[in-house]
Amino acid sequence: MSFRKQFAIAIFFALSLSSVACSNGANPSRQVTNPPAVAEPERVPGQYIIKLADGATLNSALKYFEPYEVKKSQWLMQDYFLIEVTRDPGVARMLEIGRHAEEILNIEPNLIAHTMPAQ
Questions:
Q1: Residue 88: CB partners within 8 Å, gap ≥ 6?
Q2: Is the residue at 37 inside a domain?
Q3: Are residues 82 and 36 in contact, defined by beta-carbon separation less than 8 angstroms?
Q4: Cβ(49)–Cβ(61) under 8 Å?
Q5: Is-above-0.70 flag for pTM?
Q6: How far is CA 49 from CA 40, 95, 109, 115, in A?
């Protein structure tokens, strides 16, 4: 057998082994991994931003949060207010309250915004 033929067979054999190794996951650089889980956004515990419906007052909206002891309420702009409760029932419960309260158009947790350092 000629050198060229032996060389071609050796190359073919080497390529065959590498494709088998890749297909069965032996090559770690080609392994498929699951994407990382999406983390919940950071929020200020107990703080929520609410938007009042037209004609609603802050006092009429705060009655829904009495069981959670409203510690603070602060006007932000237009019909938006920041409320802080002592006993935080969690985001899911607060969203449920917002869905059923006529005085509240929207409620969301007060998320922590991270900024990029200046370059």
A1: 45, 46, 68
A2: no
A3: no
A4: no
A5: no
A6: 17, 11, 6, 20
- Assess whether 49 and 107 both reside in one domain: yes
Which structural domain, as residue segments, surrounds residue 3?
A: 1-32
Give the position of tokens 């207010």: 81
Identify which of 117, 111, 115 has the alpha carbon closest to the alpha carbon of residue 39.
111
User: What would the DSSP string read from start to end of 19-64?
Assistant: HHHHHTT--GGG---PPPPPPPPPEEEEEEEEEEPTT--HHHHHGG
Q: What is the pLDDT of residues 14-56, one digit of tens each?
A: 555 555 445 555 555 556 667 677 777 799 999 999 999 999 9
What's the token pair of residue 99? 């869905």
Number of domains observed in the structure of the chain: 2
